[in-house]
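Chain and conformation:
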Amino acid sequence: MTTRIEKDPLGEKSVPSEALYGIQTVRAAENFPISGLRPLPAFVDAVVWIKRSAALTHKETGRLEGRLADAIVAAADEILAGQHRDQFIVDVYQAGAGTSHNMNCNEVLANRANELLGGKRGAYQPVHPNDHVNMAQSTNDVIPTAMRLAALATLPALLRAMDALGEAFLAKGREFDHVIKSGRTHLQDATPIRLGQEFAAYGHTVGRHRQKLAQAADWLRALGIGGTAVGTGLNAEPAYPALMVKYLRQVSGLELREGEDRIQLMQSMGDIATFSGVFRAWVLDLNKMANDLRLLASGPRTGLAEILLPAVQPGSSIMPGKVNPSIAEMVNQVCFQALGLDTTVALAAEAGQLELNVMMPVMTHNIVFGLTIVGNATRVLVERCIAGIEADEKLCAYWLERSPALVTALAPKLGYAESAKLAKEAIATGLTVKELVVRKGLLAGAELEEVLDLRAMTEIGVPGGVGLPGGG
C-alpha cells in the first residue's frame, strides 16, 4: 500500500494514498481500535447534511467562494448517494464529543471536493477541512445537531412498523372477537375475556406508544447549530443559524426549527434522554406482548396453546417436529438489547459538565441503533408472526369451561363466600361450575343461562341484572 505524508499540529503521519480521509482520521483509527463498529449510516448522513448545508449557507452569505462551496456540495451529494462510505472509519467508541468523526467527515469532503476541482488528495488546496468544510462550526454544535437529525431520520421507519403492528393486532381483534376464553391474572384463572379483546388491546397499546414517540420527537426538532464552541456562536455570522435550518430542512426532508437557546441545547442532553425514555417505554410493552404471544402459544399439549403462531423454521436439532415461537423470541432479544442501549443513553446524558456533554458519540450510536433494530424487529413481527396467527377455538372453550373463576358471575346472587366454596369444590371434584350449580339446584333454566352467559361476562354489566332497576 502506498502512502502520502500529511501534517497536523502534532506532527507528520503516513496516510494511505487512496484514502479520502486524512491524518486526523488516521490518528483516531490508531487511538481507538475498540469495537470494530463503524458509524451508522444515519450518523454519517446527518453530519454530511450539516456540512452540505453550511457550504450553501456560506455561499449565500458570500463568506465562501462559490466554486468551493459547490465542490463541497457535490462531494456531499456523492456520499449521500452511497459513494465513499468505506472512508468513514472511526470507531463508535472514540474521543469525547465526536471530534474524530467530525474531522473524518471534514477530511473526506475536503479531499473529494479538491479532486472535483482538479486537486490532489492530501493537499487540502483549495478546500481545507477546517477552514472551509468546518467553517463556522465546532464539533460541539455539529454532533448534537447530527444526533437529533439522525434520530429524526431513523424514527419514521419505526413509526411505520408500529402503524403496521397496531393495525395487525386490531385486525386480529376483529377476527377473534367471537372467541371467548379464560382471562388470567397472576397467571391464574380469571373471568372470561374474548381473544379479540386481548388483541385489540395490544393494538391500542401500540397506538398510544406511537403517539408518545411522535410527541417526544418534537423536542429534537430544535437545533443548536450555530452555537459553535460553547453555544455563544463565536465565528458564526448572525444569519448562519436560520440559513442552516433552511438548508437542513431541504436536504433532509425533516421538520426542523432554530433552537431558542443554543447554550442550553449544548449543555443539556435532556431532549434526547426524554426521547430515549419514551422509546424505552415502548420497548417494555413490546417485550411484554412478545412474552404474551409465547405464553398463549405454549404447548402444543402441555401449555395453553390457545393460539397458533406461524411455523417459520424447525425448532430443534434433536426433537423432530418441534416448532418454536422463533419470531417472538427474536423480539425479546432485541428488546433486551434496546433496554441496555437506553441505559447507556441515560448514563451518558447525565455525564455532561458545564458547557458540553462529551459522551455524544455513544449516545448517538445507541439511540440510532436502538430505533433501527426495534423498527426492524417490529416489522418482522408483523410480517412473519402476527399476520398468520390462528386461534384454537376449541381449546379456548375447553379451558374456559373448566375455569373456577366463572363463580364470579354468581357472586351477586349467591354472595362471595358461597361462590368461593363453589370454586374450591369445582377444583376438588373436577366438575365445572355450571355442573355444580345444576347439581345443587342453585339456579336453573333461563336464570342460569343468563347468569352464566359467557359472552355477557366479557362486557361491562352485572350478570342477570341483579339489584338493578328493571332487571337491567
